[in-house]
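Design a sequence for this backbone.
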């Protein structure tokens, strides 16, 4: 018993646990704020169709914002030399600025093609998406810089700041009887405020180095980390495009209300998983970036996968115990069917939670090409399951069930493959 107690207290006192707890505490507060406001906004101010349009916007803007850095920010945590990390910050910032400018004509092109039938919705997209690309891209860079510096308290507070600003703005829009546009504008405001919050201390400490980058060092890090823009960025693009495809096809097949129900179901299930996943993955990445033996990597991966699996089972059980009448009593009859979509959604999100929390293992092993192949597989599964379900069943719940089955298969495969690649990795790939 004393040995177990010693292991337990050793875990509690470890830097890994402390850092995860610091990040998770901010995430918990942010998610609680989001949850409370979401209940209010759903009940009194916005309809499932409003949230369906928001889901489409979030999927599109996230797709573009995730690509805006060319994923150079993933490398910020890795190098031992600080000047290399600063050079990666510089490259990421330049990429975001250029991508923001490129996104404007791209959006007009999308409006004239795919979104031509949704002009009345897309006008707010044209205005808000470039701001989201800029603010979200720069915020992501600063998160990874602070991860490198182990500024987990600052990262934690920034999430609370972002959520608070976003939800207060959305509530103000609801009180003024503004429609879905207030949901979108509130998201942009939250991203801007959190960006300012992280920017001030960074510019104070590193601003001079960022303004005067070493050209030789820039060329060096471009060569060393070229796999991030060549393979990781396309991988992230494909993965986010798969998320956009889900909402866009449901919008097309079953209307905005069903798309809104699915979007909110996914958001509700993401709340408990997100409390742990976003914080855990950042600290896990920092931890494995310092590992130099594959035996240690394998031990960490399997041990933490097991612990995350226990959390997944517990959350899944809670979701299935929630009665439908409770959801309707809180949110109103317009949200009929939300419980069924939540119970389906939790099945794949439980497995995705394990895989995503540990997904930086592929980055650590420099397996960007494998990640890209997996992303293409996921995209194919999304398209095939949704199209097959719509053609053969023409019913939203069944079609979503097929989508869930495909995603469960995909995320189990990524977990098994990660273990395989850790075992197969040569020692040289673990030396940064």
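Sequence:
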């Amino acid at each position: 018993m004393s040995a177990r107690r010693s292991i337990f207290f050793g875990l509690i006192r470890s830097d890994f646990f402390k850092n995860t707890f610091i990040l998770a505490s901010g995430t918990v507060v942010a998610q609680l704020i989001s949850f409370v406001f979401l209940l209010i906004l759903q009940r009194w101010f916005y309809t499932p169709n409003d949230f369906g349009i928001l889901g489409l916007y979030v999927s599109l803007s996230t797709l573009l914002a995730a690509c805006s850095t060319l994923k150079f920010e993933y490398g910020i945590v890795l190098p031992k030399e600080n000047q290399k990390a600063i050079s990666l910050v510089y490259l990421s910032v330049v990429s975001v600025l250029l991508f923001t400018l490129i996104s404007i004509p791209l959006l007009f092109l999308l409006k004239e093609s795919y979104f031509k039938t949704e002009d009345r919705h897309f006008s707010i997209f044209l205005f808000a998406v470039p701001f989201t690309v800029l603010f979200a891209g720069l915020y992501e860079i600063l998160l990874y810089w602070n991860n490198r510096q182990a500024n987990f308290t600052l990262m934690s507070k920034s999430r609370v700041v972002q959520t608070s600003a976003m939800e207060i703005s959305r509530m103000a829009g609801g009180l003024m009887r503004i429609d879905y546009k207030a949901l979108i504008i509130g998201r942009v405001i939250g991203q801007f405020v959190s960006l300012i919050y992280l920017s001030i201390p960074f510019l104070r400490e590193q601003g001079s180095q960022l303004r005067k980058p070493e050209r030789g060092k820039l060329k060096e890090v471009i060569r060393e980390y070229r796999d991030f823009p060549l393979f990781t960025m396309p991988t992230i693009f494909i993965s986010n495009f798969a998320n956009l495809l889900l909402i866009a096809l449901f919008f097309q097949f079953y209307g905005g209300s069903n798309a809104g129900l699915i979007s909110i179901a996914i958001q509700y299930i993401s709340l408990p998983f997100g409390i742990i996943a976003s914080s855990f993955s950042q600290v896990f990445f920092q931890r494995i970036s310092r590992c130099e033996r594959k035996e240690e990597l394998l031990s960490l991966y399997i041990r933490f996968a097991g612990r995350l699996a226990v959390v997944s089972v517990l959350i899944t059980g809670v979701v299935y115990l929630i009665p439908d009448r409770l959801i309707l009593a809180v949110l109103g009859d317009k949200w009929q069917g939300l419980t069924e979509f939540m119970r389906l959604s939790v099945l794949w999100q439980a497995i995705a939670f394990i895989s995503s929390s540990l997904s930086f293992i592929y980055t650590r092993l420099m397996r960007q090409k494998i990640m890209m192949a997996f992303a293409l597989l996921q995209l194919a599964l999304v398209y095939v399951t949704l199209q097959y379900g719509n053609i053969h069943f023409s019913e939203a719940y069944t079609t979503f069930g097929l989508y869930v089955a495909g995603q469960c298969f995909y995320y189990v495969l990524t977990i098994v493959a990660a273990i395989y690649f850790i075992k197969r990795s040569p020692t040289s790939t673990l030396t940064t």
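The first helix runs from residue 2 to 13.
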